[in-house]
Specification:
mainly alpha, flat, 9 helices
Length: 252
Amino acid sequence: MHFETFAKGSSPLHKLDPRVRVVSAIFLSFTFALGNGLCMAFAGLGLGMGLTLAARFPLLQVARRMAAVNLFLVLVWIFLPFSSPAGPGAAFALGPFTASWEGIRLAFLITVKSNSIILLNLALLCSMRVITLVRALEALRLPGKLCQTLFFSLRYFQVIHAEYHRLHDAMKMRGFCPKTNLHTIRAYGQLLSMLLVRSLNRGQRVYEAMLCRGYTGELHTLQEFHLNRGDRVFLISSLFATILLWAGQMTL
């Protein structure tokens, strides 16, 4: 699966208990997301980069994913500097629009925080299989139906994506050329409708196949979780880092 590209590995992070990785990712992600200072943002970026290197991921694939994330952040840099009040500290003017230093600072802060959170979750969560992540969430007492919904959504996302490309290719073979007119809107509407119908049919077939294999509402695996000394040390270190970062944020 595309979501499990980084799941295979023998790094120390891959050997950690999945529950520890999930709890650490939640605490640290909320810490970096709610922090307001650049010091905390850069600390999160450094931690995310360190964990990514410790996970021994292929750097080229990591760079591709980070490039896709930062592509959306371009919009932040386009609009945020010009939408914040300029005041006396105007950075520069572009025609009738004036960029403020405060807007630039906020855009820079959002960029650093976003990259730090993505790298952190890439290292802690993408280093496990989807079914392992779901089992860890269930072990942390999350509702079973919610966990299974997450699992099947991730499991069949690529299947629906491939189905969309097959339908779109069939439209192109019949001479479809997208334009900015009503015919194109109608064609894409019909494409999405057909995709929804096929998704429902496939979901029903998958559900019936699961019932034939003894599905009773729970996902059973042979994997069992056990906390060892390394897991406890990593969890305590993550919680200590969270407390230390918040203490530093309050004193600054």
